[in-house]
Design brief:
By secondary structure, the chain is α/β, with parallel strands linked by helices. It contains five helices and ten strands, in the order βαββαβαβαββββαβ. The chain has one domain: Rossmann fold (3-Layer(aba) Sandwich).
């Protein structure tokens, strides 16, 4: 499968690139600044910025699927990076006829709010991540309104631990707390479900 990874130079994006290539997929890594990318030489690397729709048009051409692991530094001021960036990406995919889209958002978006545990729910998200998650709410709404074959993946607190394959994938959060999960397991889950029709049109929360 030909897969475009958005946010490929971030830690989760690098896991997606590495695991995707090891599985035999034809991976294209998109980065705002390819010169700063720390990726293997054999990986196809393109300059693309989600806030520049024209750069995305070239990146999505010929792809079978797009995975977005778009991230941002902690910021307290309002942002539209996730919503506008995703709107641009969806428009580029529509124009190129690329249908499959997996987007990583995070625990705290949508109906996962208040399911991250006391410290995250009461301190970290409201004090440090409020504006980011307001925009991730907008991002998720844009995805659901699209005509793409989409899956939204919300991991818990990300770690640099190894792959365990002991992932709980939750769609009903009643009585559940979303805790930690490794980036390696998030990448493995996504790559293993790109062609899984049961995940199409679903929002999946990942934790141990």
């Amino acid at each position: 499968m030909k897969i475009l990874i958005i946010g490929a130079t971030g830690p989760t994006g690098q896991e997606l690139v590495s695991q995707g290539a090891s599985l035999g997929h034809e991976v294209t890594a998109a980065a705002r600044d390819p010169k700063s990318a720390n990726l293997p030489a054999h990986i196809r690397l393109l300059a693309a910025d989600v806030m520049d729709r024209a750069s995305l048009v070239a990146a999505v051409q010929g792809q079978d699927a797009v995975v977005s692991s778009l991230g941002s530094k902690i910021r307290r001021e309002p942002t539209t990076l996730f919503s506008e960036g995703t709107r641009n990406l969806i428009a580029a995919m529509d124009g190129a006829g690329v249908r499959r889209f997996v987007c990583i958002t995070g625990v705290g978006a949508g109906d996962s709010r208040m399911h991250g545990g006391f410290l995250y729910d009461r301190i970290i998200q409201p004090l440090l991540l409020k504006e980011i998650y307001l925009d991730k709410d907008r991002q998720e709404a844009i995805i659901r309104q699209s005509d793409l074959v989409w899956t939204i993946v919300r991991p818990g607190t990300l770690t640099n631990g190894g792959r365990t394959d002991k992932v709980r994938a939750l769609t009903d959060l009643t009585g559940s707390t979303i805790g930690k999960i490794s980036r390696a397991d998030v990448a493995s889950f996504i790559l293993g479900h790109l062609s899984d029709e049961s995940s199409f049109g679903s929002t999946i929360n990942l934790t141990y």
